[in-house]
């Protein structure tokens, strides 16, 4: 749905919600604090698709940006950051984020979700 939205805010929100559903599950019965959710989101995504430490670091940053935009839009109904960007920069940013989301989705479809996220992140 994110790819089909015209409004940049709607695209960013749909994308963030989709990745949140894929990367965060209720392993702690919804007891995580918002900062923990953000950390899990970033770590899981970057370790799931990153091939080396340099790429994981870049993905960690980008996933933090995706999560931040999702939070701004979900809680405020808008994102000053997105609103300040000119159209081309806004679309380029969202396309970059969508590419990351597609990689995560493809990995999960092909390999399934890791049975133990901690083992993936800690090298098990």
**N-C termini distance:** 34 Å
Mean pLDDT: 88
Helix content, binned percent: over 70%
- DSSP strand count: 0
Strand percentage? under 5%
Residue runs with pLDDT of under 50 for 5 or more positions: none
- What's the order of the H and E elements? HHHHHH
Radius of gyration: 14 Å
- Structural classification: mainly alpha
**Given the C-alpha coordinates, what overall shape results?**
globular
The major beta sheet can be summarized as:
none
Number of helix segments?
6
Description:
This protein is mainly alpha-helical. Helix content is 74%, strand content 0%. Helix 1 (8-23) crosses helix 3, helix 1 (8-23) packs parallel to helix 5 (87-111) and helix 2 runs antiparallel to helix 3 (53-76).
């Amino acid at each position: 749905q994110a790819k089909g939205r015209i409004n940049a805010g709607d695209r960013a929100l749909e994308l963030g919600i989709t990745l949140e559903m894929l990367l965060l599950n209720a392993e702690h019965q919804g007891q995580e604090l918002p900062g923990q959710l953000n950390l899990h989101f970033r770590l899981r995504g970057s370790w799931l698709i990153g091939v080396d430490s340099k790429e994981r670091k870049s993905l960690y940053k980008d996933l933090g940006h995706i999560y931040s935009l999702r939070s701004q839009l979900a809680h405020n109904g808008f994102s000053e950051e997105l609103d300040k960007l000119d159209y081309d920069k806004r679309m380029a940013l969202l396309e970059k984020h969508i590419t990351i989301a597609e990689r995560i989705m493809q990995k999960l479809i092909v390999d399934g979700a890791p049975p133990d996220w901690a083992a993936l992140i800690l090298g098990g």
